[in-house]
Amino acid sequence: MGAVLEPGERAMTGHSNGGAGVPTVRVDHLRKLYPVGGAFLRAPKSFIHAVDDVSFEVADGESLGLVGESGCGKTTTAKMIVKLIEPTSGSIQVRGGDGEAVDLSTLDGRGTKRFRRSAQMIYQDPYESLNPRRTVLDTIAEPLVVQGLGSFAEREEHVMAIMAQVGLTPVRNYLLRFPHELSGGQRQRVAIARALVLEPNIVVADEPTSMLDVSVRSNIMQLMLDMKERLRATYVYITHDVAVARYMCDRIAVMYLGKIVEMGPTEEVLRDPAHPYTRALISAVPVPDPAYERPRVEIKGGIARPIDPPKRCRFFDRCPLASKACEDNDHPPLTARGSDRLVACYNA
Amino acid sequence: MAARQLDKYYEIRLALLLRRLRESWALFAESRIGLLGVAIIVFFALLAIAHPILMATVWEHEVYHPVIGFDASLVGHPTPPSARHLLGTDPLGRDILSMLMHSTHSEFLLGILAAVVTVVAATTVGAVSAYFGGWLDSVLMRLADLVIMMPALSLYIVLAALFDLNFTTLAIAIGLVSGLGATSVIIKAQAITISVKPYVEAARGAGGSHFHIIVTHMIPNLMPLAFLFMMFTVTAAIFSEAVLSFFGVLNIRMSWGIMINTAQSSGYLGFGLEYWWLLMPAGLSITLLCASFYLVGRGLDPVVNPRLRSR
Amino acid sequence: MTDPVLQVEGLSVEYATEKGRVHAVTDLAMTLEEGEAIGLVGESGCGKTTVALALMRILADNGQIVNGKVLLDGVDLLQLSEEEMAKRRWSGISMVFQAAMNSLNPVQRVVDQIVEAIEQHEEVARSDAVERARELFDVVGLDGALLRRYPHEYSGGMRQRAVIAMALACSPRVIIADEPTTALDVLVQDRILDQLKEIQSRRRMAMIYISHDVGVIARVSTSVGVMYAGRMVETGPAHAIFKRPIHPYTEALLASVPSARGPRRPLRVLGGDPPDLIDLPPGCPFAARCSRVQERCRTEIPPVVRSESQWALCWNPVNAP
User: B198, A82: Cβ pair inside 8 Å?
Assistant: First the structure.
């Protein structure tokens, strides 16, 4: 009992920025601001900078991890990629299943609906992401129904096929069950099946294992890698757990207060983090080995709410390397460090 | 092959539905007040069913007709209960029991029609308000405030003066007033909790239209709560009709309220308990039927709201 | 060698539900020395929270301790009357609950809540109690000025620390922490874990730390107890359990947890589901999912297999002692 999951073995090799692959997802200067205050005829005075000038590319078949603590903007960014949230400014270009590149802001209602066939999302909470009054069949078939694909019988067959692929077997047993009759892991399999039933080539996963029991997580992680290979999909994987990112993502982008502070191949970033925040984050993650001596990285304070951040490095007030340059200039841009790494720091 | 699987699928769906109903009934039956309410409703339903049977068999038309009957064999109507008239006769010589039983089915229909209108109105307003938000939400909620502020009975009297209110139009009026008021606010609150659920966002992510989401996800999850309020609307409808009929402002031939109205306008209500059969049967029926629906509503609470269950 | 602070023997807890009796905890044994921190780890439903509630004797109405002894400094807590137990709660044994944010009264200032807890167990002047609250806040790293605030004015991490301070208020001998950092961000969790370890070692307090997060358990515990389907299937010193687990479940669990550091190794996938606690199978509860299962595992409860201070319940252990 117990298949074996090789880290990164099934993930397709991706290329970082400047690689040969044509990007499937390209994000440029993406911003999302939420107004604070303001009433009917009064303009709001403050804004929450949920996502603040974020740019990256994800190559075809690659898995990019968006890593950070709560409030860093990773979920907002990911939802903009699947057009569930509209950006305030910036552009997102996506290469859908047909290979054509499309700018998300140019899509009208019909175009958006077509786009949805190429990009789907898997949610974090297996208890809230399924309608408690609908059966497994209803839930997984819904995207097909909404997109007007197939007859009733064809849809049912397709759903049963995908249920077998995600491990909900024997299929007949699960087809007409309700969510409350399933375990957390089974519910998440349903959520995965629903996301993949349209055979999207872009999948955004929002911490799909963080609310699952520890012993179930590796099952779901392996399932997601299997499905990725089968669909030849490109993943954007959101997580706060760098250990999970290590197994699921080729590259990671570490986010803080709406900005990317470091980006590079997962293994390298974990082994040799350049940005002080990344270093603190990695050293703080508990390691399942009592003999492990962790390097202590002191950073003070807590995460501020990103309301009207002052024009300086976002990490200035907590950074052990903070210098005058960090305070006087705006947030440092992402600069290349070696062939494969981008770091936003004046002093690293 | 696919067709065979389909047949089985519908069978299983039906079996699932029946099982759900059975479980809900079991939960409902745990509360004795709910069962009491059902018992009373069944009693009145039997009354309603029995009336046409009696009219066709035992009761003579000229004497026992609830509206135009007259018992010439007795002198000095209203007469107290006797072997011939189990609940006596009213000032116009009509058999009280017959009037009572005849009115029952109208009361039921009134109540249920009003309730259905309430549910449709409240669910639509609540779902649309919660889902779309913005100015639509503001407008609808201000409308609800307006409706809540107005004293309902006065509104009905004004409507009765302007229009000719019979059972049907009264039911619709009551349904709208009830549904667009407090009920829609409560349903909207529930609808908001649904609209922020990830499964609604997932439906949108799959390409679902607004209509699809409201009809497929929001309304089915709102139905249990709406059904609960339906019960309370029936109570309000029956009671309102009784009061309005008592004032004589409705275009209705016969109802429990009319019975009391007849007694009052003939001058028999000021005598204490001397002419009790003119007041008690009708009054008691109104009270009991109203109470019964309310009790059923209370019994439905744990079915609708899983957190109130005892286990 | 001093006597252990806490000694649990043969603890069994059942819940009465309409579907039958749930055997939440079966025949559990545990020993805690002064200054020891045992990490109770296992998947959800394994009974670890039930054990905590049973030790505090705050089980739900339908919960019943059907058997066992819980000796706190030699006194059997299960034999005490409710009055006597109430005296020992908070001053002898206290608990930091899961979702501790919710165990703070939102309409009462935090200082009043702490003072109330102290006054219920000791005869102290209010000013002394307030002074102690200030000291406790110092210990958990909170600014004393926060005392007069209300819980909603605290951030998640601060609330957690406030609750820990409250649990320490009467200097208990044993503190139980039930997933205290689950809802917190990584950096906040890190600091609170450090603080907890420091408090525990400085005060020579015994601690039971409950979590499903294997990494946190490794950080915080000196010894580990692995639970499965209501039984303690393995227990021993932390470094021994992690380096040489005896029980197949422990081994599978450790192998299925990803780690951010150290060499990249393949992750084990653990199939199947835990058994139904109402209808427990005879024999070892892990038999259905065990890769080393033998015939007798399915029918007979396994014996205790021991290696120095580490022991496990297994017929076919992984690293046989």
Answer: no
Residues of chain A in Cβ contact (below 8 Å) with chain C:
1-8, 69-70, 183, 213-219, 221-222, 240-244, 246-247, 267, 270, 280-292, 299, 302-303
* Out of A5, A183, A280, closest to residue C266 by CB: A5
Q: Which residue out of C38, C257, C261, C264 would a mutagenesis test of the A interface target, given it has the greatest number of A Cβ atoms within 10 Å? A: C261
ipTM of the complex: 0.86
Looking at domain C6-80+206-313, which CATH architecture does it have? 3-Layer(aba) Sandwich (3.40)
Dihedral angle, C-alpha A102, A103, A107, A113, nearest 10 °: 50
Mutate: best of A289, A292, A293, A298, partner C, most C CBs <10 A? A289
pTM for this predicted structure: 0.85
> Which residues in chain A touch residue C260, judged by CB atoms under 8 angstroms apart?
242-243, 246, 270, 282, 285, 287
What are the pLDDT tens digits along chain B (311 aa)? 444 555 566 777 788 788 888 888 888 888 888 899 999 999 999 989 988 888 888 888 888 888 888 887 888 778 888 888 888 888 888 888 888 998 898 888 999 999 999 999 999 999 999 999 889 999 999 999 999 998 988 888 888 888 888 888 999 999 999 889 889 999 999 999 999 999 999 999 999 999 999 999 999 889 888 888 888 888 889 888 988 888 888 888 888 888 888 888 888 877 777 888 888 888 899 999 999 988 888 888 877 776 666 54
Cα C182 from Cα C46, distance rounded (Å): 17
Question: Residue type for C128, please?
Answer: D
Q: Which domains does chain A have, with CATH numbers?
A: 7-249 (3.40.50.300), 263-348 (no CATH)
Helical residues (DSSP H) of chain B, grouped into ranges: 2-29, 32-56, 61-64, 96-132, 134-149, 152-162, 167-178, 184-195, 198-205, 210-213, 219-247, 256-265, 276-304
